[in-house]
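Researcher: Next entry in the queue.
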Amino acid sequence: MRPRFLTCLILAACLPGPRLAATQTPPAAVVIDLSATGPGGAPLTTLRAQDLALRIDNRVHPIDALRLVRHETQATPLPAPFATNQITPGRTIALAVDVTRLPASQAEAVQDGIRSLLPALGPRDRVGLVALALDGAAVDFTSRHERVLAAVTTLAGGAPRISVGDEAEEAAALASLALLERLCISFAAEPGHKTVVFIAPAFATSSSTRRAITDLAAVTAQNRIQLVVVDPGATTPAPDGGLAALAAGTGGVLLPAGSSATETFAAIASRTTTRYELQFTPTSGQRNDKPHRVQIRSLRQDARITSPPSVFIAENEGAIEPMPALTDMLGESRAYRDLPLRLVAYPVQDIDGDRLRLLILGESEDPSRTLAWAEFALISPAGVTVARWKLSSAQAAARPIVTVAAAAPGPYRLRMAASELSGRRGTVDYEFDAGLTPAEPLALGPLMFGGMADSAFVPLLQPAAGTLAIMAYTEIYGEPAASDTMAA
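Model: Structure for this entry, 488 residues:
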């Protein structure tokens, strides 16, 4: 790097980053996601397996286990200065707004509701925003909620007034349900439980909309999606409307937001902080790649259970999933954690003043293991890949891996996919803003950690155990006047 800069070297203490192991479901088990609330509507956290009765296809079925899943909503006091794929993930929430049918009078309330939801989420919760339209804008899943917040203002309604129950209204509702189903299908590559918040005006039920809801229910059951339906124009739920049928058909909930959108969306955050995973072992006859009817009844009078009406049981649930190629893993957003990885990107000034150079470091978390292959992708907030490249075997074997990429200023998600010679593979994502920090008349580069070698600063991700101090390095760009004094 040869731009004009001043350097500032600082000694800093080193704190190890968090390492939390991810739990895995036994291969032979099938998981049903459910929620339990008490008499006042608050989440119930004392449920046991013996408190429930399970029926599959109207036959009593034994329950293997019941596990309570909690999601933290408080930020950790000191996050690691890099990304790792060994952190326990939070919730995955997609906000799907039916902008093609949303009246302009309700758009502002929807925006306010989403703004009230985001601060109530945890720092590890990933949120995506989708405007349900053929050319609708989208924000890819991100834990940087400010990106979603910035995109909320683009959600504008303005749908023409249509009488509920006529042919045009039915056609518009069917088109929205088809877009919602396509969105849920796209989440097939996202493992685990997902919450989709469908924000849409009411529509009437008909034979066509009921068939569409049945098709959508099969998709949500197969992909472990809980649907939360929000009616922005209703003050009380309409028990006989299309939105109520959609919630009932998918095992979701219907929330009216007409009286207070901010309270409704805050309730969504509260009711999704805890859930249960019920595990059962299907019989050989039930393993047929089809949905099966589910009934879960509480034996406790103080517990209300919300669960999907069906569960998809794969034919080869216990089969080992083939590991995709690194190039294919880059194109997904799911996390592969078999190979623990770390990743960071430092935006620094390039010779070309209009662009930045990204100094990228990646490595295996095990110092004794060497990476054999590594590929990278730079992805925009909308999920579009703007750059992709792979390293040679010699470059991948370095510790840490050091690679560079040119980028225009702006927000990005950097994704790394890597593999060992043994075949273990993993992915890790790092979200960041490519830009320098203004400090007029200067600009500050990122803070890097490392040490000195051969009279040069060498960055690193995690110091060796027992290290008492590390060196911190930043670049300061600009031309201060001769009379200026500087202090750090």
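Model: The helical segments are 104-117, 145-151, 167-186, 207-222, 242-250, 261-271, 326-330, 393-396.
Researcher: Noted, moving on.
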